[in-house]
TrEMBL record:
This is Uncharacterized protein. Its EC number is 1.-.-.-. Belongs to the gamma-BBH/TMLD family. It comes from Drosophila willistoni (Fruit fly). Residues 42-108 form the Gamma-butyrobetaine hydroxylase-like N-terminal domain. Pathway: Amine and polyamine biosynthesis; carnitine biosynthesis. Residues 128-388 form the TauD/TfdA-like domain. It is an enzyme of class 1 (oxidoreductase). InterPro entries: AlphaKG_dependent_hydroxylases (IPR050411), GBBH-like_N (IPR010376), GBBH-like_N_sf (IPR038492), TauD-like_sf (IPR042098), TauD/TfdA-like (IPR003819). GO terms for biological process: carnitine biosynthetic process. Its cofactor is L-ascorbate; Fe(2+). It comes from the Eukaryota. The keyword Coiled coil does not apply.
């Protein structure tokens, strides 16, 4: 057991080789590097170093699994001394309990706690940063890809998935007149998402339609499935037959942009929409499906993540329940805020009309989409086929394409 005085002495002593590694106090190791490579010293909590010891006793490299600290964290183990080994380029830590750890410089640099390194990882590896866009920026953010290229070329698949993550949508051209196009695309990414509407679903005017989308009337701006906790990540909509009538056009608004505008311009409304939960519902049965469904989910219109970033928009007027399970005094102010949201969303909506062979794909957590009214005739019946894929699957695929060696 080290006395307090002894401890301070140990802590303040630079390691012998080029005075590079230092226990700055009981809880941190500082690593100063020669040259211009790293301007600031790298700094690591000792508790984190011990937790992430890479020795075979603590870490099973092949499965990337931590073997240590299953029942309690490494809070009580103190570092006794540290040195930076110039030759092996490793930080070596001697612990009070006689355990030894060593960490490669490159490994440490990638895990540096500076804001710059953290953001680099979050935006390059974790998730690309979304580029929010207004109506007037639509042409600049509109990405098109050839359907066959997506299936054949990994580079194009990567660009497409990046466009979905960054701009929130993309249009694929020249898909064949085949009901399975959406299935092929979902399989190309990974796995299709099955829902109460099946694995693929058809959007066409149906007599006695069980869903408002299956009518010829206009469809207001909405996201699919606000009534699901595990709401579909992207919507893949293949146009097999487009309406030759005036309508049937797509409408689209970047919901993250609208939420961001509200945060900046109407902070009080923003706070209401991010905190008051709405009851979303979907009750019924879909055409041929035998199983009835009763889907309910309570969530605000604007959902934020732990970093206060906008992470999900819920909006579907046709799927908003008359049950509103909030205290009485929240109702009026919610409607006032919601009204502003609707106003901005429709003012920022773009309109375009897909052609037969187009596949319109968009982030369903972000984009509000809708449709103008149309008119079927006996020789022209608008016909779309859709499928969903979850973002867990998409991000995973994107990372395997961007970092093909990470799995080795
Ligand atoms: Zn170890």
């Amino acid at each position: 057991m080290l006395t307090c005085r002894h401890w301070i002495g140990q802590l303040r002593r630079w390691s012998s080789t080029s005075s590079r590694a230092l226990l700055t106090d009981q809880n941190y190791v500082e690593l100063r590097l020669d040259g211009k490579e790293v301007a600031k010293p790298l700094k690591y909590p000792t508790v984190w170093l011990r937790d992430n010891c890479q020795c075979p006793e603590c870490f099973h490299a092949f499965t990337r699994a931590r073997k240590s600290h299953w029942e309690q964290g490494p809070l009580n183990v103190k570092a006794e001394s540290v040195i930076y080994n110039e030759q092996s380029q490793k930080l070596e830590v001697q612990w009070e309990d006689r355990h030894k750890s060593s960490f490669a410089l490159e490994w440490l640099k990638e895990r540096d706690f500076s804001e710059e390194t953290r953001n680099k990882y979050l935006h390059n590896v974790y998730k690309p940063l979304a580029q929010l866009w207004s109506k007037k920026e639509f042409q600049q953010v509109r990405n098109e890809f050839q359907y066959e290229d997506i299936l054949q070329k990994d580079e194009v698949l990567k660009s497409w998935l990046e466009a979905l993550a960054v701009q929130g949508f993309a249009i694929l051209k020249q898909a064949p007149n085949d009901m399975n196009v959406v299935r092929h695309l979902a399989n190309r990414i990974g796995y299709i998402k099955k829902t109460t509407y099946g694995d693929i679903f058809e959007v066409k005017s149906k007599p006695n339609a069980g869903n408002y989308a299956y009518k010829m009337v206009p469809l207001p701006l909405h996201t699919d499935m606000p009534y699901y906790e595990y709401k579909a990540g992207i919507n893949i909509l293949h146009t097999l037959v487009q309406s030759s009538s005036v309508g049937g056009a797509n409408t689209l608004t970047d919901g993250f942009y609208i939420a961001d505008q509200m945060r900046q311009l109407y902070p009080d409304y923003f706070n209401v929409l991010k905190s008051i939960p709405v009851n979303w519902y979907d009750i019924g049965h879909d055409g041929d499906a035998k199983q009835p469904f009763h889907s309910l989910w309570r969530a605000p219109v604007i959902c934020l993540d732990v970093d206060n970033q906008i992470t999900r928009i819920n909006q579907n007027t046709t799927k908003r329940d008359s049950r509103f399970s909030v205290p009485l005094d929240q109702v009026q102010k919610w409607y006032e805020a919601y009204n502003k949201f609707l106003e901005l969303a429709s003012a920022e909506a773009v309109e375009f009309k897909t052609e037969a062979g187009d596949v319109f794909v968009f982030n369903n957590l972000r984009m509000l989409h809708g449709r103008t009214a149309y008119e079927d005739s006996t020789e022209n019946k608008r016909h779309l086929v859709g499928a969903y894929v979850d973002w867990d699957i998409i991000y995973s695929k994107l990372r395997t394409l961007k970092f093909p060696n990470a799995q080795d």
